[in-house]
Amino acid sequence: SEEDFDRVLNVNTKSVYLAAKHIIPLMKAQGSGAVLNVASTAGVSPRPRLSWYNASKGWMITATKSMAVELAPAGVRVNAINPVAGETPLLKSFMGEDTPEMRAKFVSTIPIGRFSTPQDMGNAAAFLCSDEASMITGVAMEVDGGRCI
Fold first, then answer.
1. Can you tell me whether residue 47 is helix, strand or coil?
2. Cβ–Cβ under 8 Å, residues 99 and 105
């Protein structure tokens, strides 16, 4: 529906715009910062019946790269993580139904053989926002157990 479309775009695109509008000026003023967007493997390797979600996550990857180029001279790094389906409350809605068969079907597309966890995402996020990643900007890191290979 048009309501669903608007919701997907507001959550996945307008939220990035609004956050940037309010936070980037502060980071530019201090001469440093690290922005982390949460995109998705759907923006790299789309799944059927998720066209608008896939497109919104592809937009987020492109926005991340565009912001990285624009903001690098101001000392602000911009990266994203691309999670694969994970053990979160949204898993059921992503799969359509939460059955052992549906879980097996989704896991079979992940070479490492399991869903992601919030800890997996947190570890990648912490790295990309850390000083150890000070030379990394414009990356959309796939945290996907090999799904997008």
1. coil
2. no
17 is catalytic: no
What pLDDT digit, counting tens, does each position of 49-72 carry?
A: 889 999 999 999 999 999 999 999
pTM over 0.70: yes
Residue range 80-137, pLDDT digits in tens: 999 988 877 777 777 777 888 888 988 999 999 998 999 999 999 999 999 999 999 9
Helix runs in the chain, H state only = 2-9, 15-30, 51-71, 91-95, 100-107, 118-129
Task: Report the distance separating Cα 59 and Cα 117, nearest Å.
Answer: 24
Please identify which of the residues 53, 82, 128, 144 carries the catalytic annotation.
53
d(CA 69, CA 73): 8
